[in-house]
Design goal:
With about 350 residues, the protein is of the alpha/beta class. Helix content is about 35%, strand content about 25%. The structure holds adenosine-5'-diphosphate (ADP) and magnesium ion.
Length: about 350
């Protein structure tokens, strides 16, 4: 059986528009020639600074908007080839959880209604007909006893409880893929750990596949199996979390890791930050060559003119960088010694 649930090839999204009176056309290349696959049952994380194109990829994978170029297959089927009926059937198999449950849950509807709604839409009838399923879902996400929840409104709950409700809603149609776009970024640290633990448990019990979007490497470390690091619409590095956290190859990944105090009992942190020059440039006018070159501590003249190809530096570990293997390995080694020295 094919182990890829989602495969994305050459995905590109350009937002375009015109200013007032049709003048000054603008365009933003939010996602630029991105390729990756998500295996069944894994948590695949997309990580990168705000504005690098993560949410755009989420919307493209769910086909909430059309790509400018590239293709996306879900369970082996190209999304672009599907008609409305097929798409509706397919949508049931993929659901989304957003950062802010207060904004994504209808404030005027009861929890029972919110959870019954997806079933009513897909199977007919009214939300209240699905009381058994609603109870089961609340129980599954640890909101017990369910009777205490169904008649109340979203604002009566804490942020963590609301995110549990949003997760329960995403599970109502028994999806295979959950796209979680910064699902814990708005939560306090202690609650964040509980929601991550819940998502891990649900993955084990239901065999879910996650596309997990976050700007926080600590979160990646605690939940993801594989990670793609994005910079200005491009993936700069992809690999197993275990190997990327120990030996990042791309200078951007190394800089991100050095700036993020990840609690790890195995490693004592010296926490010497690699400080990046300047700000993230605008995707409306991305730098030539490697998009990271103006801020890269290891940039060479070539980097300003030629976009780096993506190479496989170890099995399943892909990097888009002009540095040769020796330079990248040195990067990794130096990073490792920095992390372990004290
Ligand atoms: N609907 C839109 N119209 C125009 N530009 C957009 C739109 N959505 C996102 N962008 C721009 O595309 C880039 C990527 O945005 P986004 O995918 O939301 O990134 P992230 O989720 O990583 O913060 C940003 O520069 C953002 O301003
Ligand atoms: Mg986003």
């Amino acid at each position: 059986m094919d182990t890829a649930l989602v495969s994305v090839e050459g995905l590109t999204k350009v937002y375009e528009g015109a200013g007032l009176f049709g003048r000054r056309r603008w365009s933003v290349q939010a996602v630029s020639d991105v390729s990756f696959t998500i295996r069944r049952g894994e948590t695949f994380a997309l990580v990168g600074e705000s504005g690098c194109g993560k949410s755009s990829i989420a919307r493209l994978v769910l086909r909430l908007m059309e790509p400018t170029a590239g293709r996306i297959c879900f369970a082996g089927e190209p999304l672009a080839a599907m008609n409305r009926t097929q798409l509706k059937a397919q949508r049931r198999r993929m659901q989304i959880v957003f950062q802010d449950p207060m904004a994504s849950l209808n404030p005027r509807k009861t929890i029972g209604h919110i959870l019954g709604q997806p079933l009513a839409v897909h199977r007919g009838g009214r939300p209240a007909h699905y009381l058994d399923e609603i109870h089961q879902a609340l129980d599954l996400v640890g909101l017990r006893p369910p009777e205490q929840f169904i008649r109340r409104l979203p604002h009566e709950f804490s942020g963590g409880q609301r995110q549990r409700i949003a997760i329960a809603r995403a599970l109502m149609l028994r999806p295979e893929l959950i796209v979680a776009d910064e699902p814990v970024s708005a939560l306090d640290v202690s609650i964040r750990a509980q929601i991550l633990a819940l998502m891990k448990r649900l993955q084990g019990e239901l065999g879910l596949t996650y596309l997990f979007i976050t700007h926080d490497l600590g979160v990646v470390r605690s939940i993801a199996h594989r990670v793609a690091v994005m910079y200005l619409g491009k993936i700069v590095e992809i690999g197993d979390v275990a190997s990327i956290f120990v030996a990042p190859r791309h200078p951007y990944t190394a800089a991100l890791l050095s700036a993020s105090p990840i609690p790890d009992p195995q490693v004592s942190w010296r926490h010497r930050r690699i400080v990046l020059k300047g700000d993230v440039p605008s995707p409306a006018n991305p730098p030539s060559g490697c998009r990271f070159h103006p801020r890269c501590p290891a940039a060479m003249p070539l980097c300003g003119t030629v976009a780096p190809p993506t190479r496989e530096v170890a099995p399943g570990h892909l990097v888009a960088c002009h540095l040769n293997d020796a330079a990248m390995a040195a990067n990794a080694a130096c990073f490792r010694s920095e992390r372990t020295q004290r």
